[in-house]
Amino acid sequence: MQSLNFPPPIYNNYIPTPQKANPFLFRNRRDQTHRFPPLLLAAKHDLALNDDEDTGGAVAPLPEGLRREVMPRHVAVIMDGNARWARQRGFLEASAGHEAGGRSLRELVELCCEWGIRILTVFAFSYDNWTRPKVEVVFLIRLFEKMLRSELDNFMRNGIRVSTIGDSSSYSGKYDVVQACRNIAQKVKDGAVQMEDIDESLLEQELETNCAQYPCPDLLIRTSGEHRISNFLLWQLAYTELFFAEALWPDFGKAEFIEALASYQQRQRRYGGRRRS
């Protein structure tokens, strides 16, 4: 775990660790990263568990209607709607919505731990978000740092590991693919890689999000009723199941999460193949 040097945006993953009852990895993606250490924003030290690793400790019973054998391993969330939530309640600044959104994130982390979801990836701040008012950007960065500091002891106590993936800029799914191609091109130029060696696996290894070590999301949830992925994990979402929630992010809680998981469990994932009869 690293100390927070420069608070960035957040992209987080939680993965259970062997010796704790609620083992998880909290890691950050380039989308929300500045090459700074951990946070509900995470950073670049990859700490995932293998499927055969024991999650250690009992997992809480699932809500009625959910089945453990078809729970997603990796859930990604686009946390959208904080500013609209604040406006609807008469707040002059979006900061009230961001603070409320932080509470929703804490609840989601707890539910993932309780229900055995191994990875949680959260998209909170993209490259395009730098165009927002400076006061809002500064508030977000300070909020990320505040959340990290306040939750650090809790993470350690519950076996949650924090890791950040990314560079010193905000995340862009398009740029992630571009920089991976550049890295491979340079290796070809240097003679370290042959043209015939270039395949999907090699490109994945060059992505800032490094899906070679971490599974691609099984389920993507976007809140606020918007139906788009907004330049988030463009490569990794190829076969991800999508769920669009009408609730604004600060209103997204346990009931809404159960609805998303129930929808996911009713689907038959074909990965490009035909539906089984």
Automatic annotation (TrEMBL):
Gene Ontology annotations for the cellular component aspect, listed alphabetically: chloroplast stroma
Leading EC class: transferase
Keyword terms of this UniProt record: Transferase
Pathway: Protein modification; protein glycosylation
Highest taxon listed in the record's lineage: Eukaryota
Database matches in InterPro entries: UPP_synth-like (IPR001441), UPP_synth-like_CS (IPR018520), UPP_synth-like_sf (IPR036424)
Name of the molecule in the record: Alkyl transferase
Lineage, broadest ranks: Eukaryota, Viridiplantae, Streptophyta, Embryophyta, Tracheophyta
